[in-house]
Each structure stands twice: as structure tokens, then as C-alpha cells.
Fold each of these.
Amino acid sequence: MRYLGSKVRLLTCIQDVIDEYNVQGESFADLFSGTGCVGDFFKDKYNVISNDFLYYSSVMSKAKLLFCKRPAFKNFVKKYNADVFEWLNAKRYTPDQTYFVYNNYTPVGGRMFFTEENGIKIDGIRQTIEELLLEDVIYNNEYLYLLASLLESVTRFSNTSGTYEAFFKFWDSRAINEFIIEPLAMNETDNTLKHTFYSEDTNQLVRKIKGDIAYIDPPYTVTQYISAYHFLRKH
């Protein structure tokens, strides 16, 4: 995901600091988790305490930390005899008044965040994921994985410079490609340990939790990131 202050490039540096100073412990608190890349990196080494005030960030962290690798979706495969991502991408969707992205973030709603065709597909896939959960075709953790996959996938087709504070007045080349949902990229490991998740103000949370290692990297400004990622909160 194109994300403000992503820590992907710092992951080995964080590990190097832990090794250099021989920092010991069983728990690792990632208190501003963002896209969850730090917790994902350490999920097989520590019991991660993941926190971010924004709900979509919580979804991303849960999807990455609850799995060692891409889930098998056994109930879905048993019912449909298909790969869930191929199935979602192949379905045809018909927009109506409940299609939030189509009605608000495409030219239909006077905005150019997404093409109309992609808005329809994003909404259709989002609603279908919800239906699969309600019909007990997927488990809750698989639901989170699909939801996080959708959140990450939409950023590859948005007609923006990276965040959602403004859209281009022309169609960027990536925005006119047909939308597809792809499996969430994650650190694939042999195991994932016991993790806990919060979606709270860190200033309040630190008064209630305990941990051995804390990684604290707050936003760079007093402005909440939700202004840059307001689109994702509706998912």
C-alpha cells in the first residue's frame, strides 16, 4: 500500500538495533501499526501487541498477524470448487444505491478517484465478501484477510498521487486498468505466535498494557491520517 511513513524499508534496521543491544523479551508492542508491516515482520519472533487508532489499520494488522501464509478457504472451495480471488474477480456486479464507491468516488458522483467500472467492481466485491461471512462460507479471520486484500488492492487502481485527499483531473494509466483483488502480501512464516490487537489512542493504551519491547513511531504531524485515507474507512 502507498502509505505515509511506511516502515517497510526500516524493518532490517529495527532488527539490527535489537540484535546490537541484545534486547531480550517475549512481547513486541507496535503502537502505531499503520499497515502492519512491523508486526508482520516480527510475528514469528514475538507476541505482538498491535495498535492503531484507525480501524482499517487494525484490519490490515489482524489479517497479517493471524496467518502464517495465505489461508486455504476450505469451506469456500468445498462449496464453489474455485479459488476465491479468481471467483470474486470473475463475477459480474450490478450497481444500485448501496454501491458506496460507485456513487461517491467515480464520475457518477462528480469525482475521479476511480473509473465507474472499477467503482462497481470494488463495491460488488466488498458486498460479496460480507455475504460470504454472513452465509458462513468463510470464517471471520478469512473475512479479515479478504477485506485487507481489498483495501490493499484498491490503492493500485486509485486515480491519485498516493493518498485520497485529491484526485487527478485526468486518468492515470493505472486507474484505467480493470480492477482485480489480489491476495494480501505478507511475511510467510512457519508459525505465528499469540498476538493482541487494539484500536485505541496510544496515550491511553500504554497506561493499561505491559510489554518487553516497544516500537513507537507516531504520525509526523498533528493531522490525523484519516484525512489522507478517508476512502478506506468505509470498507
Amino acid sequence: MLMVHPEAAYTLSFDIDPTQPTPELQLFRTYEVNGREGYVNFTKVRTLMPTVVGNRYVYSFTCHENKMSIWATTLGVDGKYYEGKVENVRLNGVGTNSTHFSINLIVVGAMEKTKDGLSIEEFSSYLLSAFREKYYGVTIDTLYVRYANTHPTLGYKYPAEIPWVAGESSEDMFVSELAGWPEDNLRNALNIIMVHSISKNEIMGFAHLFSGVLGSGDESSVVIGEHVRKTGGGLELLSAYTIAMTAIHESGHFFGLRHTSTTRRDLSHEMESGLMVLSGDLSNMEDGLTDTPFCIDVFRSTLYKTAGVGDAVYRSSIGCLAKSGIETCPDVNNIMFPITVSDTIDVIFTEQQMEIIRSSLMIFPH
């Protein structure tokens, strides 16, 4: 299954299996069956033969859809499914959209000053400055602050005096209906929804992995909390730095970055019985970049079973890290390290991470 965007050009490639004939790639458009939730039909888009580059098959195509779409793929030989090995798969995309974007900071419900005394307006200036510093390869034009209770049609649902808890105050943890604020200059932007807290313990923010929606609709928002719920009970008010770095980390997921080091949740999903099982997506074991070190101690540790990519990211205190030795990980100063370490560590994106963000931004319509 491939997520594709309007007018973006893609290459899908994988290693050649010399024991098998060259396969053709079939691309199918997917669409939901009316009245049958969860059922999907397919229509063929095209059939492609590859070019050979080194020891890899490379298939090239352009998406001419009018919105983000999910395409399905099959590999075939003479009307039968390809029987060879398909290893080291890579999808690259190139778009023509701007490398500029703006941010909507949408504040939901009751708020107080941050742990270090910043009001929402002061924090918004701090957040914009932090984004501009860390997202050094692209341009953030401006940051707009909007309060959910002032929304022209939905404001009545979000009273300013009540703390909003993502995952508890409504069924939609992402508060998606607030994304794409109905003003022309706010519709196509990165939507950061700031809430009082998140219902899960030790979670400070979450985002969909490779969302691709700079505007309104599903998967169009990054959610951050002003407080974090502690495992032992109670709430902890966070500093402006911690909230801002959480927003930048989660936005990294939004633009397609995985964790630099794998957590147990990255390789699994929860069943209804509560058991953790392998998802089968072993691409989560590695972010695919050569300039981001990997720390196996994060995966070995039992402290981070609830961490996830594209779901909710566990953000631990330095106290937990000291118990596990995680603070010595070589990627501890990377923004996409899965655990918050300390306000004193200067975190960064590497050049390859920044190139993914830049490429994604050029693919995402905005």
C-alpha cells in the first residue's frame, strides 16, 4: 500500500532476485465500498516495467490524483504473482510545492502559564523561534494563535474554563475538526492542537506518522499537552522548552521521521486482550538513515513499552533514564530520540532527517 500525493513523482525500488524473471508492477487505486465500512475496492491505474539501476529494480510513476490517495501494488510475471524475494524496498518522492509553511497553534480549553511562567502568547513566540531554529532547512513563515472557544461554528463545544484532556474529553483524540481554521490564511498550515493534558500516563504528545495533510481533515493535527499525567498519580506542569520540543518531535513524525532508536511499541500493537504482538512492520526497527545512531538499550529496556511511532510517544523523565543507562545512548541529543531527557540537552535534526522533512513538505499540497 502506498500513500501518494497530487502531482508528486515517485520511484519504488527493491533488490533484484537473480533467480526470478523481471516482475511488472501493477498500481491500483483504492476506494471504500458505499455503505460497507472497512470494505475496499480497487481499480487499476497502470502497469509498469522497471529500469535496472545497479542491483535494483526501479519503477517510476507520477500521481495525478486531486488529493492524497492510497494505492495498492502487486508484482506479477505472465499473469501470476511474482515469486521472488522482495528486499530493501524504498519509496522516494519528489514534489513541486513550497518549502515554506505556517503553523496554527490551536489552544483548547483552560490553560495556565508554563512551568517557567510563560503565558500562551509568550509561549507562542517561543514556539515559533524554536521551530525556526530546529527546522533549519525550510522556512516557517509565521505562527497564528487561535482559541478553540472562539471558533466561528464550533466554539460552543470547547469552553475556555474547562481543562481539555485528549482521549477523554471527546472521542477524537486529535480534535481534528478544529484543524484548517476557516480563514483563508489559516487553512493550509501545520495544525498544532494544545490541550491541558493527554489521558495516557507519561504521554506529552502524539501525531500520525507521515500524515501529509497541511490543512483540514483526518490526520491533519499534532497534539501536545501542557501537563503530563504521571504513572504514580497526579499531573506535572511542563516547561516551555519541553512542550516546544515535544511539538517539534511530533511534527517530525508528521513529516515522515521515525524514532532514531526503536521502542518495543514501535514493533508491536496492542490486541484487545492486552497482549503485545509483532506487527510485522520491521521497517520500524530502523529509520533508514546513516547519520542517526541507533541505541539497542532503548528496545531492551522495559521502561518504554508504551512508546510508539505515529501513535503516542512516551516521554520519560531523567530519573527513569538514570535507572536504565539510556542517557548514554549516542542519539540522545536527536530530536527523534523517543524519550525526553533533559531541558539542558540541545537536541537537533541531522542533515538526512532535515532532507526528509524538506522533501515531504514539497510533496504535501499547501
Amino acid sequence: MLVKVYGSAIFGVESKLITVEVNIDNGVGYHLVGLPDSAIKESNFRISAALKNVGYKIPGKKITINMAPADLQKEGSAYDLSIAIGILAASEQIKTDHLDRYIIMGELSLDGSLRPIKGALPIAIQAKLDGFDGFILPKENANEASVVQGLKVYGIENIKTLIDFLNDEAELEPHRVDIESEFNQLVENYPYDFSDVKGQENVKRAMEIAAAGGHNIILIGPPGSGKTMLAKRIASILPPMSIEESLETTKIHSVAGKLPKNGLITIRPFSSPHHSVSDVALVGGGSYPQPGEISLAHNGVLFLDELPEFKRSVLEVMRQPLEDREVTISRAKFTVTYPASFMLVASMNPSPSGYFADDPKNTSSLAEMQRYMNRISGPLLDRIDLHIEVNPVPFDDLSKERNGEKSATIRARVLKARQLQIDRYEGLNIHYNAQIGTKELDKFCSLDEQSKNLIKIAMERLNLSARAYDRILRVARTIADLDNAENINSTHIAEAIQYRSLDRDQWG
């Protein structure tokens, strides 16, 4: 008897329908075809033990299983449940009336219980588009998949529960989640607040500008000056995620198997890879491509602490994603694209010894300092909009009892500036100032004569590149938005130039 059970395969952050065809005929043998990987080939051992432990068995006949389309590589153990149900249905141990209505996915344990799978959210989205009534999957993934409205999601703990359901011996209740209440409850749940930071008002101002315009920023200062503390708090002043952004980010984390227990990403992600990270771990890839750290930071913050300690090749592969806001990974047989629209926050010491050249504690020569700075290429530095010196906090600021400004207060100003940008760029597929293209700069960042003269002098004295010129205009546009000014003036340009003071020719 031939039976078809439906599953799904993940490619990038999208899914594709997979039909598991099971045919049982006279003879002996177990044949699994359709480009399965090792985890799928081993599934017969898990399935055999699981079925035996719930009172069923694999029949002693010739079993042929085809995973169609047969020319696409399948990977992972999530097809265990699909194959097991197909074998039971083809051997007439269970009814087949409802199989064409559901996507069925799950990894089997030897006792018949189910383990969670990766990519439940994109699978659920595609199942709805393909017209399926429901999605049957492990209970741990039910919250995540239930985010998709209009699709019945059944979370089960054991294959026996599913067998009884298909045999009309038991009912399954669809899992429901109120996405708006879940989202609103968790969207303000930030673990860090700017009120914890004493002093550093100039750095807070720069970070407010970065958050308001979505600009990349680098903090340069000695150990203990508060670089990491400040960086960890920048997500708390970014605008709250919209439901659309939340779903897009959740989809990436779902594919990577890194979702929280509630199954929904509601606060902007903060990714902080160690400096020993490899190229593939940062941008994504592998034999079976997976999202990298920059995609896990999509719609959030990527923090690179001690930037010069990262391998040169790792830093260079970020150049294209910083411009295009996506990562394309090409293999011989397929190409996948992962979103990577993140805000880069980096930190570093000004020298190998950790201190500025004029600090008495500095033991590095100017040549050593220059070699240290040269670990970061000029093209990568050009893509960072704001360069900020972070000096140690004076004792008087540390000893003050009064806390600094709360993140909520700063975020209110950021939101106001972001709303101006949303209104200005309506219909242009631009969401904030850092995304302004070269074509739009003349229209939205026009300068008066005084501002033009000021930026001309800065370009000549600092030997800035054309890309740095564009970045200054974008930052000035954000400063003007924070001032609620319609046009950029010389004050905004002067402040924006100040944040380029650590460009290549000035270091060391």
C-alpha cells in the first residue's frame, strides 16, 4: 500500500514542502531514498524502538520510502515522526483519512516521546500558504508555531497521542497563543538600563544619535572605562520591535534552534560573539547552511568587543553585509540568503597596553599603537559612522548618589526622531537615516553654504573618503531630527564631524 505524509525542509529562512512517500510490498528490505543525510538514514532504529515501546511495530516486508522532491538534500531528525506515521499507515495499522490535511514533523525518542525541532515557525508559515488545515509537532514547539494565525497547531508529547488521534480514538486540542498580549507583555523587558551608568554624558549622547538613526558606532577607551557596560544598554533605547520585526527575527532564531521558551523574540536581539569566532560562525554557512551571528542580530545589535583581536578575515567578511543588510551563501547546488540588518557596536583599546598615547600608564610605542590600529582596515572603519573616545569616569561622577537618565526617557526622544524618519521616507523602503542611499542624500541632506564649507575643510584636513562624507551627512541628518529641525545646519555638521575624529590618518 502507498501512503503520502507531508513534512517540510528548511532552506535559508524559508521552508519547502516535502512529501514522504511510503510503499509496502511483498519481500524484505528497508530502502530510504531522496537524498537523506545520516540523521535521516539512522531514523529506522529510532522508529523501530519507539513503535515497539508504544505497542506497534515495523512490518517485516519490503518498505520503500521516498522523500520528494528527490533532488533536494534533506537533513535532520525532524522527519522521524513523518516516516513513522507513513509506515504505520502504509501497513494499515492506523487510518489514513486525515493524513493529507496536516504537516507532521518531530524527532522520536526511543520511548516514543517527541523532541523539539528547528524551524517550526517558517514551516508553519509555509503550511498555511500551502493550504494545510494543521501542523502536528512536538509540544515544545507549539508556542512558536501558534504565532501563525489561521493554522491549527497541535503540540503532542508522544507518538501514541498522534496514533490515537488519527484512529479517531482521541481528540487533540489546537494550541492557542494570544500573540498581541504575549508581545506587549515582553516587549519592554530589558535587563539593562542607562540609569546604571554614571557620567559618560558625551558617550550617551553619541549612542542616542546612533540609536535614533540606526548608525554603527565604535567605542575606543582604556580598560574599565565602561565600554561594554554602555554597549549592553544600547538595545534598551532602540525603538520597540513591531510584530512584523518580531516574527522575522523569530524565524531566523527558529531555524538556528535558539528560541526562548516562550517561542517569540520580543526584544531586540543582542549578539556578542567571542573574538575567536570563525568566518562561517559570524556570517553563516557550513555544509548545511545555518544563520551566523550577524543574522541572529537581525533587527538588533551586534556587539564586537575588543575589535582588533578578531581575525582580519572575519572582520572583512562583514563589509558586504554592512552595506547590503543581507548575507548570501552560495553552494554548488543552491544559494540561500539570510537577513542581516543589524546595528554594529564595537569597542577596542587605543593601544596594545590598553591606554591612550598621553596616558602615563601607556607602555606602547607609537609604532606599536599604529600596528595595533592597522588590524582594522580602512574600508571597514569607513562603514562605522561614529567613533567615540571613552575616558575613565572621574571619582566625583562615580560617587554621586543620583542615577543617570533612564533608558525610557532617552528612548522617547529616539522614537520621536524615528517617527520623523518614517514619515519622511514613506514609500521609499527606507526606515531610518543609516539606510539613506547615495541617490537620496542630495534630496534629504541638502546643505547651506556655511555647512558645505565646514565639511569641505574637514574632508581636506582629515583626509576622509567619499564614504565617510556620506556617513557624516547621514549622522548630521539624525542630529537634526533629534533637534526636530527640518534642515541640516552647520551645528549639526560640526557635531557629526566630531564623531569622525578617530579616522585612519588621525590614529596613533
Amino acid sequence: MTTFASGTDTLTRDALTVLQPGFTGTTAPDWLLRRLGEGLASVGLFGRNIASPAQLAALTAQLRAERDDVLVAIDEEGGDVTRLEVRTGSSFPGNHALGAVDDVELTRSVALELGHRLAACGVNLNWAPSADVNSDPANPVIGVRSFGADPELVARHTAAYVTGLQSAGVAACTKHFPGHGDTAVDSHHALPRIGVGDAVLRARELVPFRAAIAAGTKAVMSAHILVPALDPDHPATLSRAVLTELLRGELGYDGLIVTDGMEMRAVSGTYGIERGSVLAVAAGADAICVGGGLADDETVRRLRDALVTAVRAGELPEERLADAAARVRGLARWTAGRPGAARNVAEHEIGLRAARRALRVTGGADFTPLTEPPYVVALTPVANIAVGDETPWGVAAELRRLLPGTQTGTFADGEAARAALDAAGSRRVVAVVRDEHRHPWMAAALDTLLAARPDTIVVEMGVPQAAPRGALHLATHGAARVCGRAAAEVIAGTEG
């Protein structure tokens, strides 16, 4: 049963309740368990907290032994952003692959199976799906995390994803409101600005969020972006005009509003996490996400005290903090009362089937599958923080399984092509790229490879914006493990 430590007053409990902190390690530290007893109601998990499904289930059971209605949240989008399978790559393709297939029932089924896997491990809140319309092909942080560039396509798949995930008893957190797709800046590093007018925002960015709300999304995550057409002075996370007047008022949303990570530089670099958290709750946010970078008891204490002090100083209405805490507890009650839909064992391989359907092949008519092990040239860009650099990607591991003896090398600069050609020797070259259109060095390396070895096979595992080229061009629409397997099957002629 949930118990609260004696001497914890209502204001302090409410301040703890609205926090969604992280921690380090694969078991819950004593300080976290103590905070749960004092009123903390949510915990955020990251790849560092997960070693296996069994370990994760034991961890969430440990949390629930202290507080039975705790919200356990995770950033599990599938595709490139995975925490459940951070060290192996995801069993599910991401949004861009699902958008490429454009079968809403497939999207719903993928989200349902992902939800079942989360629920089986004791996770009941997923910071997904991304409802961002990827209208800027140069976007450094969204890309394949988006269903696509068409608002209506993104809307119907966002709704399907929400429905599927929540049918498994896991609350969806649709993000990043009011839309992070039209940015060329990563909000982990700086404050992006969307300079379009109100009419464009309503016809593009807001369309998927309207669909998510209609589908009953239990949570919405705010974006650390400046949208002058809505509020010229404050990032969306800190804007009453965006969170209260637009999201709550105009769009009629009544669920939980969660902030993106407060230690991200777009907010922390200007306001600091304490001031930023106070302003976010005052603007209409209900839950403060922190812990991707700052993951200790001191951070929780600082944020709790900042909220309490702001209430006592008259800077944050006590009623607003109480309302936020009530919404957190309300979502906790919803998850506790949701056993989830029955699991269909036939859906076990749905991720691989979806990845195969998402694959786009150019030049296949004249292609003869490989029978000898190739050399895989991985032209590797720097991973953004959301994706991380822990998760393996590419086709080498899957090709090695199908064509034993396959070798590979990673290359990441202007000298990549020459070094790769030297390493490949006489072997057939498979060049793997990720967002070729965003990286001039990558495009130049591919030019050199193809000039020297016209029979090179090219696998694009990012947004396929550049023109297809190579003896065979495969666009996977994402870098999940199953996307690599689908590509490897075509290269080796063993399609399932």
C-alpha cells in the first residue's frame, strides 16, 4: 500500500508528486524509495537502468513495493529511440518506417505489441509517440522519429499509435507539443525557433495533436521551442499561451501535460532547472521530466524546494500546483485500473514484418544477391542525444549471420572513402548511410566509393531524402535492428 512519511505536508507532497526524476543503476537507490514514501509519484527510466526484461520487471516491482500506484515512465519509441533494447537495437521499426507503409492497422498493432512488452515489465507510461511533422528535412533531432512530412498522414498514425499503446494498458505521451518538426536546431543543445505564422501552425503542426487528443491520449509532452506566432517571449514548455490557452483551452485537452527534459539546454541554459520548473508548472505543465542527465536526490530536492518556495512567495498559485499533482494521481489511477487487451501471440514478429514492408528497393531488377561475405562500410554520423550512441545499428551483424565472414568498419570523416576502399580490398562493398542529405562528408564519401566501385550496394537508414544510387539502393526508413535485418535479407536473397 502507498504510505507517506510522517511530517510531509501537503504542499511538499504535491511538489514531489509533479516530478518525474531519473536515477542511475539497475535497482532503485534508497533515496528514490524514500522519496516515493514522501509523495513522489513518478519515476523515469533510461537505457542505463535496463539490463534485461526480467531485471526491469524486478526493478518496477521494487518501486511498487514502496508505492503501488507509481507511474513508471520510459522513452520507448521503437526504431532508433529504444531503451528496452538499448544494447541490441529495437525489435520494432520506428515511426518513419510505419509512415512509409501507411497502414494504420499495422501501426496500431505495432504499438499494441510494444505496449504489451512494456506492461509485462511493469512500465505504464511511455513518452511516445512523436507527433511531429518532419517538414524540415534538415531536422537534426526528429527525422525518422516522425511518421513523415504530411500532416494528415502523421495525424492518422499518431492516433493509431495512441490507440494501440493504450489498449495494452500503457499511457501514451504524445510529443513534442506544439510540434518540433520544422526546426534545424536540436533543443538538447539550444533553443529552436519556428518562425511560421499561425495559419501554417494550425494547418500543419497542430493537426496530429488534434488527432491524438481525439484518440484519448493520456499525456502530452511539451517542446522546448520558441514559436513567436503563439508566444514571442517564452519557449512552449514555459508558455501559458501554449499550454493553457491553446492546448487546454482551444484544443480541449484535459489529460496530463509533461515537460520535455528540463536539463536540456533550450531551457536550462537560459532559466536553470529550478526556475524553469516553476515557470513550467505556472504555465500549465503538470509533470516535470528530469533525469536524463541529472539523476540524483539533490536534483529532486532542488526542484521540490523551488516549487514550495515559489508557492510560499506567491509566484506559483498553490491551486495550480495542487491541480497538477491531482492530474498525476489521476493518471496513476487510470494505469492501475487498466489490465490491457489480451495479447495475440501471432503479433510476436510484427516488428520484423513491418520493417520488411517499409523497405524501399531501387535497382532490384538487375541485382543478383550476394553469396560471398561483403565488406560493410558504415558511414556513421554523430548520434543525437535522443537516440544516443549506445544502440548498435546497420546491417553488418545481420549480414554476418546470413553470410558468415562479413567484415565491417566504421568511418566518420572526409577520408572515409579511401580508408574504406583500402579496408574492403576485393570484397563487395555495402555502404550504410544515415541521412546522407544532411552530411556533405557522407555524400562525398559515397561519391568516391561509387566512382571506384560502381557495384557498391547502398543502404540508407535515415530519412531517404537524397536520390537513390548504387548498384542496389535500399531505404529502410530507420535504423532499428529489424530494419537492418530486412535490408540484409534482400542483399543475401533470403527475404522472409
